[in-house]
């Protein structure tokens, strides 16, 4: 059986919203996304649907070259991998496919962010924030990393988890596989 991995991208764009969250969390990264490939060609999360407007948010397929990250060329990141079974890998793909097929049914769980601050989960139907989404996809697919409800998982929890190993840390636009793919983040 070959090894399968899923990839978790933690980012710090330096945006106003990111800086405000960082004041509270004091964590190096305050956004998390999920990918099935090292090249980050399919990157999923809950965040900005409109790059210049953080309020219009929900399920997104992020683009590290042309999307929101283009507005923030100094975005720093930590790319992590988690080894999974073939069965779990397939379930993660199926779950992501279901989200993508029904993307307009989902919205951002702004209220849930306050629940994290108060350590009280605020799950809402079809509403997630980024780390809640990634934790929920993994849990639904058979990879439960925490005893904590997904609605209380923060991006920093991924950074601290022993099953998540860092492959790359630095500026997103300097990530070697993006350069090989011809992408350059932050160039208009």
Give a description of the structure.
The chain is of the alpha+beta class. The chain has one domain (4-180): endopeptidase fold (from Nostoc punctiforme) (Alpha-Beta Complex), CATH 3.90.1720. Helices cover 30% and strands 28% of the residues. The chain contains six helices and eight strands, in the order βαββββαβαβααβα. The radius of gyration is 15 Å and the shape is globular. It comes from Aureibacillus halotolerans. InterPro entries: Papain-like_cys_pep_sf (IPR038765).
**How many individual β-strands?**
8
Strand order, biggest sheet? 4-3-2-1-5-8
Termini, distance in Å? Answer: 43 Å
Low-confidence stretches: 182-188
Portion of residues in beta strands equals 25-35%
Percent helix range: 25-40%
CATH architecture: Alpha-Beta Complex
Largest sheet: 6 strands, antiparallel
Taken together, the total number of domains comes to 1
CATH topology: endopeptidase fold (from Nostoc punctiforme)
Number of helices: 6
Backbone structural class: alpha+beta
Q: What is the overall shape?
A: globular
- CATH class call: Alpha Beta
Query: What's the pLDDT, averaged over the residues?
Result: 90
- H/E element string? EHEEEEHEHEHHEH
Radius of gyration: 15 Å
